[in-house]
Design a protein that fits this description.
Length: about 230
Amino acid sequence: MPNPPKPTFEESYDLIRIQVEKRRAKWTLSSINWLDFDDIAQIIYAHIHKKWHLWDHTRPLAPWVSRVTSNQISNLIKTHYSNFSRPCLHCPAYEGENLCSVYEIQCVKCPLYEYWVKSRQAAYNIKITLPIDTHANEVENKTAENVNIEKGVQEMHREIEKALKPIEWSIYKCIYINHLSDRDTATKLGYKTSGESREAGYRTIAAAKKKIIQVATKIAYSGDIEF
């Protein structure tokens, strides 16, 4: 029996709205007092509409919308905090507050801090009305609790497999999952030497790797993989 036609975004809006509203509690950044969840919801609706073609309508809609929504919230948090915050917060020398194990305190003696003062501090002060340090539970700790690298990697593998031809997927598994070298991959797949100055199967593997990188980049930047 053939699958029913894919519903439009407009036809599915009520279900989408319910799933987005379930994530309202995740937006707890009170320091961004000019951007509330209703604004965030509009951004998410626009993103889902733009990515509508990526939803496989043979699978339930709710989990896909939930994943996209969570990813968008995470991306917005990073955009409004991490992109403009002091580099010290991610530095191995950071010792909390304004302390530094190299320069004792965070100051322009550090070239990274000096660059931040000159190029990003003004934008940071505009975007953030309260210090990021007081919102650890909202930003760093909260996002870290929800990170599941292994789940995200496995989902990435599945999406890449869908986009690749069988031979490209075989090469992908050898190089990026089993961590074989190009030569070992060629040997495993039975490729012949293409010339005295060439590695075994050089052209086939090189072409496949180029395609794999293009596919992986597109999937990664789609924002639909949840880590």
